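Write out the 3D structure for:
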Amino acid sequence: MDGKPRSDETPETQSPANEAGEASSTDLPEDREAASDGEVTRLQTELEVARRRVNELARAYQDLNKDREEFKQRLTRERERMIDVERGNVAGTLLEAIDELDLALASSQQDTSPLAQGVRMIRDSLLAKAQATGIERIQMVGRPYDPNVAEAVDMEITPVQDDDQKVVAEFRAGYRLKDRIIRPARVKVARYVAPAQA
């Protein structure tokens, strides 16, 4: 208390503490290195785990994005298909009107009266409007018969072998919308029969 060293604290008792202090100060850098190496290893392991998790999340996000884009494309294709189906249904009514006008004009092929000309103009206008919506009239006469495009409702015997299975007449026109047949044609098909030999 008075500033003098106490009797129980001798220089001998002080030196071992100092030696221990010196010894511990020399051991600290090695302990710190070992602790530091352990900490670095632990942090590297955590970093690797975090990287793997980020990669998994990035892949999951990419997959989700890809699925979303595919869904949007599928939805767009389905919507377009439904619009085409409805357009085909509406076109069916329009095509029936065109067929009736074709029948009226067929009975008066050479008629040049104003009434026949008016009917012809209406028919051509309706056909042009149908074609403007993407409906295409299928030309069948003179082509090989295709059951996917036309219905054979009549047959005609032909002695010409090259005309076998060709469409020779059209009773009702066929129409397609894009790649889909909205109404097959009704046609007469030639059938080759070898001439009888006498």
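The CA atoms of residues 59 and 181 lie 43 Å apart.
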